[in-house]
């Protein structure tokens, strides 16, 4: 078990005292994405509870976020910690930025306890994830992509695929995506865009995605700025006609994590509103958040 030494994290922006009726637990807060969410959430005036869940290596760690201490608990006592915290903070929203291998187990825990949650972690068995949440009737925002502008692009792609199926029949699709070396799985965003291209008629398998995780290649071939090698998301899609006389290129590049953190805060505020209204629909995605139209 890790020692209880306090790790200090200073926030880049001052905390504004609003939305402080909403309590959040950010699981995976020792990671870079979790830290970015905590910073954005505290800047928006949300209230992080003093505990969070993490992996075995993080158990016992105490983080200090601008004077707010958060103790990380490991797998052994996670159910009791979550249950007691939800009892103490009945308005609690859990945020999950853990690891792909933990997605289904974590979701099952949140559903068992009955706590609403926002999950931006990619990977896992997504069909099982949705079934688990649907069966439990717990409120949740589930999205592999939390960046609002990227989600708007995805929505446009889905509309095109729905209205013009087969428009790119016979076209050859090439996909390249670059993320920081620590990202283990194929981008959930890439999977969603590929699904749209498949509906549009392009033949493509996920195994054909060119994953770029080598920092040298990311700088030299992809064009990632060196300062963002530890946190970026570059996606490139190229469609070529069978006779190679026509080509289309789609590209969206993100440096840093702020776009995802800010989107996550919007998802938290959105979900808290749905819980308060006792909304009939209980499973949402970021397109639902976008359509609400009241993002910050």
UniProtKB/TrEMBL annotation:
Residue intervals of the Dihydrodipicolinate reductase C-terminal domain: 150-290
GO terms under cellular component: chloroplast stroma
Coiled coil regions in record: none
One Pfam entry name: DapB_C
Gene3D superfamilies: Dihydrodipicolinate Reductase, domain 2 (3.30.360.10), NAD(P)-binding Rossmann-like Domain (3.40.50.720)
Pathway listed: Amino-acid biosynthesis; L-lysine biosynthesis via DAP pathway; (S)-tetrahydrodipicolinate from L-aspartate: step 4/4
UniProt entry keywords in alphabetical sequence: Amino-acid biosynthesis, Chloroplast, Diaminopimelate biosynthesis, Lysine biosynthesis, NAD, NADP, Oxidoreductase, Plastid, Transit peptide
Enzyme category, top tier: oxidoreductase
GO biological process: diaminopimelate biosynthetic process; lysine biosynthetic process via diaminopimelate
Subcellular location: Plastid, Chloroplast
E.C. number: 1.17.1.8
This protein's record includes keyword Transport: no
InterPro entries the UniProt entry points to: DapB_C, DapB_N, DHDPR_bac, Dihydrodipicolinate_Rdtase_pln, NAD(P)-bd_dom_sf
Location of the Dihydrodipicolinate reductase N-terminal domain: 22-146
TM stretches of this protein: none
Catalysed transformations (reactions): (S)-2,3,4,5-tetrahydrodipicolinate + NADP(+) + H2O = (2S,4S)-4-hydroxy-2,3,4,5-tetrahydrodipicolinate + NADPH + H(+); (S)-2,3,4,5-tetrahydrodipicolinate + NAD(+) + H2O = (2S,4S)-4-hydroxy-2,3,4,5-tetrahydrodipicolinate + NADH + H(+)
Entry-linked SUPFAM superfamilies: NAD(P)-binding Rossmann-fold domains
GO MF annotations, alphabetized: 4-hydroxy-tetrahydrodipicolinate reductase; NADPH binding
PANTHER family on file: 4-HYDROXY-TETRAHYDRODIPICOLINATE REDUCTASE 1, CHLOROPLASTIC-RELATED (PTHR20836:SF0), DIHYDRODIPICOLINATE REDUCTASE (PTHR20836)
Family: Belongs to the DapB family.
Physiological role: Catalyzes the conversion of 4-hydroxy-tetrahydrodipicolinate (HTPA) to tetrahydrodipicolinate.
Record protein name field: 4-hydroxy-tetrahydrodipicolinate reductase
